[in-house]
Amino acid sequence: MAGSTLASPSVEAPPLARAPASPGRETWRRFRRHRLALASVAVLAVLVGGVLFGGLIWPLAIDDIDFSAQLQGPSWAHPFGTDDLGQDLLARMIYGGRISLAVGFAAMAVASLIGVVVGALAGMSRRMLDPALMWLTDLFLSLPQLPLLLLVIYLFRDSLKAVFGVQGGVFLMIVAVIGGLRWMPVARLVRAQFLTLREKEFVEAARSQGATTGHLVRRHILPNALGPVIVAASIEVSAAIIAESTLSFLGLGFPPDIPTWGRLLFDAKDHLDVAPHWALFPGGAIFLTVLSINFIGDGLRDALDPRRVF
């Protein structure tokens, strides 16, 4: 009909494309799907927060002796009980936890740094450096760690105490020894990653544009190899905490007046029949710390693995 207008069909606008998530946000999305790892983060946060700030809530001194309260079980006055001198175990665990966790993370940093340097040098070398470094790595892997730890402690403990003091010298010695004997798995892992990544197309493209070896390592290879290294580092924290606890349990770690969790277990071993709480609480703290760090490592492994589909 003349004068009439035909209504044009409505055209829906295409949906907006979803912006790709950033690598950090994608890693967090993958990580939080691992329920045990997420719960372990909460447990570890409680433990770390407790040893860092617990002294503000429970300000008892670690060396207050009360013979009238010897070997008492948990109570309102002493939530974790007391030891054979009547000292409060909660205050001693808060103080000792700082040292145990500090040793674990510091030894992990030493082991990771040495492992990354050795693995990167071996992975980028095309000549005799690679087999020489791997021979050195295999040599350290074949050494019995506990006897070597004991030997180094006996040889250098007194000299380090004289230079850095009792607590500082023992701390540096334990961190250096544990970290110096735990870098080999990280080195082998980094070397394998470098051998794979240095042949990738993006590395060849950067090399063809004149990038130096140092630039390739810093900007292209090392950032792509950090995922497995982070996972391995989380495992090294657990191994370092257990190693420090073992040395303290053997009486070769910190002095008796410094109550690390391992030292508390060593002091409690002769009173297990009358005061099991003395060993239960520090042993439980070590168990929860190591277990939570291992689960966090599992979650990081899944989150940082690009081949896994969630």
From TrEMBL:
The chain crosses the membrane at residues 36-58, 99-121, 133-156, 162-181, 225-254, 274-297. Residues 1-24 are annotated as: Disordered. Residues 97-297 form the ABC transmembrane type-1 domain. InterPro entries: BP-dependent_transpt_permease (IPR050366), MetI-like (IPR000515), MetI-like_sf (IPR035906), OppC_N (IPR025966). Gene3D superfamilies: MetI-like. It is a multi-pass membrane protein. Keywords: Cell membrane, Membrane, Transmembrane, Transmembrane helix, Transport. Pfam families: BPD_transp_1 (PF00528), OppC_N (PF12911). It is found in: Cell membrane. Belongs to the binding-protein-dependent transport system permease family. This is ABC transporter permease. It comes from Methylobacterium brachiatum.
